[in-house]
Task: structure prediction
Amino acid sequence: MTPILYDTHMHTPLCKHAKGEPGDYAAVAEKRGLKGIVVTCHNPGPNGFSARVRMEMAQFDEYVDMVERARQAWDGRVDVRLGLECDYIPDMEPFLETLLRRADFHYVLGSVHPQLPYYREQYDTGDPIAFYETYFDHLALAAESGLFDALAHPDLVKNVYHREWDAARLLDTIGRSLDRIACTDVALELNTSGLHKTMREMNPGPVMLREMCTRHIPVVVGSDAHEPHRVAADFGQAFDLLEMAGYEGVSFYLDRQRQPVSISAARASLR
Result:
């Protein structure tokens, strides 16, 4: 079958915790029947913000050039596009607006990373429920900022205070966040790398997926690959979860525009 699907979440060595050049990821994408990939390495931050897990500002042009070289090298075989994963916290908007004007991105993925030291130092008071509430409020604020096409791994917070996590008991908190997100037309990501985190299920889990579907929130599927072999990993299982939650289609973004695909067609296109 003709390839139709993109994996839209993957990284480069510039973030200091990933391996492989974009071309290495494209090679795996070709083997797995993808039409293309969108490279979304972690954004540089202001004034050394969380510098251990992202590119330096001085490396931004290097990043753009790295993806462009892969695009040219794989032209006609795998469509390689430029994206960015941007950490979001309140008051980060002006910095991100300026950063996103520096290149022609095809896809901008917003993230709230509650496990990182800068986030916990600022927002974690030791109360798990309050921490969950803060996280889901920030997730909604990220959608409302208008900066992002989709939001990554939208229940990532379950890996912090994981023993206290119970999605069913947090439905009011999750639902308030999803109600706000549903008003923005921003998509949410089903991130397959959750299978390898502390709570070994995709992000988000089945309870939140069902709540997303009832609100008609578009969904994208991303591997969050930090090594080439993870490209399109566990996409078949992701499609199963989405169908069980009530979804019939998935999306990806090109030129900042959402591209819908039926799950059945996406599944059939993969190798």
